[in-house]
Design goal:
Layout (H helix, E strand, L loop, with lengths): L2 E5 L6 E5 L17 E5 L4 H6 L5 E6 L6 H14 L5 E6 L4 H6 L7 E6 L2 E7 L4 H15 L2
Parallel strand pairs: 3-5, 4-5
Antiparallel strand pairs: 1-2, 4-6, 6-7
The protein binds zinc ion.
Zinc ion binds next to loops.
Length: about 140
């Protein structure tokens, strides 16, 4: 399973964070929740996204799509702000045709909020950070419990 280095927003320590884990990642130094940002494809989507214990924000993106360059940093900012509450999973639709087809990702980017593998919110197309923040906040509130 791939893992990536994620810098703690509180103390700055770079932590190695696995793409999938039983709990939520915490900083090895200050023990605060770390932003969880992972990549998934057809093979790993079940483990990385559907099996997650916390809500998952899925970013269905493609390298040829211009707007993702605006949306991706906004989503990563949200993942940092909502560390411990949401996991950001990025799926390159070009290399993940099954995931793309399953969620009908005809427009790129398509954003989904998954709760235990079920889609609880959906947003198609690029939007500014403030709009995405409200959307994700509503989705998480609606998905609670
Ligand atoms: Zn830390």
């Amino acid at each position: 399973m791939a893992s990536g280095l994620i810098r703690c927003g509180h103390c700055g320590k770079a932590n190695r964070v696995p793409a999938a884990a039983a709990g939520t990642p915490r900083c090895g130094k200050c023990h605060r929740p770390l932003p969880w940002i992972a990549d998934a494809d057809d093979t790993t989507f079940g483990e990385v996204a559907e099996a997650a214990k916390i809500p998952v924000l899925v970013d269905l993106w493609a390298p040829w799509c211009g707007p993702f360059r605006m949306v991706s940093p906004a989503l990563e900012q949200l993942a940092r702000d909502l560390a411990g509450k949401v996991k950001l999973v990025k799926v390159n639709v070009d290399s993940s045709p099954q995931v793309s087809q399953r969620f009908g990702a005809r427009a790129i980017p398509t954003l989904l909020v998954l709760r235990r593998g079920q889609v609880t919110a959906r947003q198609t197309g690029a939007a500014p950070l403030a709009v995405l923040r409200t959307w994700v906040g509503n989705a998480l509130a609606g998905a609670a419990g």
